[in-house]
Specification:
The structure holds two protein chains of two kinds.
Chain A lengths: L1 E5 L3 E5 L4 E3 L1 E5 L4 E7 L5 E7 L5 E3 L5 E5 L4 E6 L8 E8 L7 E3 L3 E6 L1
Parallel strand pairs in A: 2-12
Antiparallel strand pairs in A: 1-4, 3-9, 5-6, 5-10, 7-8, 8-9, 10-11, 10-12
Chain B lengths: L4 E3 L2 E4 L5 E6 L6 E7 L6 E7 L2 E4 L8 E4 L6 E5 L8 E8 L7 E2 L3 E5 L1
Parallel strand pairs in B: 2-11
Antiparallel strand pairs in B: 1-3, 3-8, 4-5, 4-9, 5-6, 7-8, 9-10, 9-11
The chains are: A mainly beta, B mainly beta.
Chain lengths: 114, 113
């Protein structure tokens, strides 16, 4: 069984300040972990993924995430928020079983103030 | 490369009516997924196809939902009859193989009145 908990349903930051979106996971297998972003009325876009290589993963648009097995966490960060970062972010776990099943967290809505 | 295509983008129906959604995956992608995303929640897998065969439909409410991928390319998801709680965005995704990144379509927003 696998699950994902996104610890904040809403995060508000000022433009130019750091972003931290928190995610904890649970998985019976060695997990693959993803962050997806969803802008209003648009499809889900992959930001980055961890698949058992380097624990610090760099993604698009300046985002990165660090896999910490001891803490079962995969927090998403960005040094400086931009207005265009305002969106819904989903942390996702995929167990390494045959079905490639993705389990999504509940989402974190990021708001960026000017 | 074209992305995952879905239609319609929006649909409004009354409860007890029927509705169908269509998905065309990225060319060459053997695996296709349908997800349901209720407002304020993350997407939930409904069904997974590998070519034209079902891999996982354990979370599909089979009394009212059905899906097919007859030729192993595009797919149709049907709801008959619809209930108010079916109001959601229905997302289609595809991958080349089981372990690859899933690419999502824009979704179909269903409103059941």
């Amino acid at each position: 069984a696998q699950s994902v908990t996104q610890l904040d349903s809403h995060v508000s930051v000022s433009e130019g300040t750091p972003v931290l979106l928190r995610c904890n996971y649970s998985s019976s297998y060695s997990p693959s972990l993803f962050w997806y972003v969803q802008h209003p009325n648009k499809g889900l876009q992959l930001l980055l993924k961890y698949t058992s290589a380097a624990t610090l993963v760099k993604g698009i648009n300046g985002f990165e995430a660090e896999f910490k097995k001891s803490e079962t966490s995969f927090h998403l960060t960005k040094p400086s928020a931009h207005m265009s970062d305002a969106a819904e972010y989903f942390c996702v776990v995929r167990g390494n079983n045959a079905g490639n099943m993705l389990t999504f967290g509940g989402g974190t809505r990021l708001m960026v103030k000017p | 490369e074209a992305g995952v295509a879905q239609s319609p983008r929006y649909k409004i129906i009354e409860k007890r009516q029927s509705v169908a959604f269509w998905c065309n995956p990225i060319s060459g992608h053997a695996t296709l997924y349908w997800y349901q995303q209720i407002l304020g929640q993350g997407p939930k897998l409904l069904i997974q196809f590998q070519n034209n065969g079902v891999v996982d439909d354990s979370q599909l409410p089979k009394d009212r939902f059905s899906a097919e991928r007859l030729k192993g390319v595009d797919s149709t998801l049907k709801i008959q009859p619809a209930k108010l709680e079916d109001s959601a965005v229905y997302l289609c995704a595809s991958t080349k193989g089981g372990g690859d990144t899933q690419y999502f379509g824009p979704g179909t927003r269903l409103t059941v009145l």
